[in-house]
Write a structure and sequence with these properties.
Length: about 325
């Protein structure tokens, strides 16, 4: 969601603040509309921009689609596939992509697909049955041979899934593997050489996901407080990410015709700096650019950033 906050006071110009949220201009289920012309032509005091991928463009090789190839290879190698997924959006996009793979005869229908996680199941049902503005043609996105882990006796059901040595695909809530039922599956398959754990989006350097990806085959790894040998295959792909790359973020920001300032957040510190430098090369030189940091506060008027000051006492 993009949120506009307008601050009004008698005899003063309105202060309009635009909060981008996790922005992307593409979505498998929804049409992402351009902002209204009246807003784009308004005087905007500040746009608060994310910068998760503020150091790379949309054509960067690191974010090119790799999901299909990874799944095809794992299927041929008879591996069980574990897919950690954020419950809203990515969970449903992966189901739709698996359905397409079945349609293209690249994923045998005989391989069962198990869906775990209360929130992932809840939003999947809403995507199917609720009026959320989803494209009608994409509402029927469930692949064949899909099974939802029931709430009743779910621990017993999970154990049966894990103990069954036949090939399968498991989708579960917990995008970076640090929460939700996906933890049970990751810890159970880390030491199995017949499994692929495939992360589906951005993994921060300090996350459990990145530490597992970065570890060498056969290396000791720490996960959820326990030590394991990494014998499974672990990969990641950025194609399902909810975050746009810097060129798309720049196009969104540059669409405001009277923009006073940009405040950059939601990204690694070095990435924020790189994105700020990138924007300076494209935006009007009068547009002020700040980088959000708990150590500093910003005073903003209708003309944008006017002053910064430390939020800690100085000795």
């Amino acid at each position: 969601a993009t949120i506009v906050v307008t601050i009004s006071y008698p005899d003063r110009d309105d202060i309009k603040l635009v909060f981008m949220g996790d922005y992307n201009n593409k979505n498998m289920f929804f049409n992402v509309e351009r902002l209204p012309e009246t807003l784009r032509n308004s005087k905007i005091a500040a746009v608060f921009s994310e910068s998760t991928y503020g150091d790379m463009d949309s054509d960067d090789p690191i974010v090119l689609p790799r999901f299909r190839n990874y799944i095809e290879t794992a299927i041929k190698e008879k591996r069980t596939i574990i897919l950690p997924a954020f419950s809203i959006g990515r969970y449903q996009e992966v189901l739709f992509t698996l359905k397409r793979l079945q349609h293209d005869l690249l994923l045998p229908i005989s391989i069962p697909i198990y869906c775990d996680g209360n929130t992932g199941q809840l939003y999947t049902q809403r995507f199917i049955s609720s009026d959320l503005g989803i494209k009608k043609i994409n509402r029927n996105f469930l692949p064949k041979n899909v099974h939802f882990v029931p709430r009743k006796d779910r621990k017993t059901f999970r154990e049966k899934i894990i103990l069954d040595t036949s090939q399968k695909i498991i989708i579960s809530s917990g995008g970076m593997g640090s929460y939700g039922p996906i933890q049970k599956y990751i810890s159970s398959y880390l030491e199995r050489d017949d499994a692929l754990i495939l992360y589906l989006g951005y993994c921060s350097p300090e996350s459990n996901a990145w530490k597992l990806i970065d570890a060498q085959h056969g290396e000791d790894v720490l996960y959820s407080g326990m030590c394991y040998k990494k014998w499974c295959d672990i990969k990641w792909t950025g194609e399902f990410s909810a975050h746009a790359k810097r060129d798309t973020l720049k196009d969104f920001i540059a669409d405001f015709n009277d923009l006073q300032s940009v405040l950059i957040g939601h990204g690694e510190p070095q990435t924020r700096m790189q994105f700020a430098s990138y924007l300076r090369a494209y935006l009007n030189e009068q547009t002020k650019i700040g980088i959000l940091n708990p150590d500093y506060a910003y005073r903003i008027t209708s003309d944008g950033i006017q002053k910064t000051f430390p939020t800690t006492f100085q000795l």
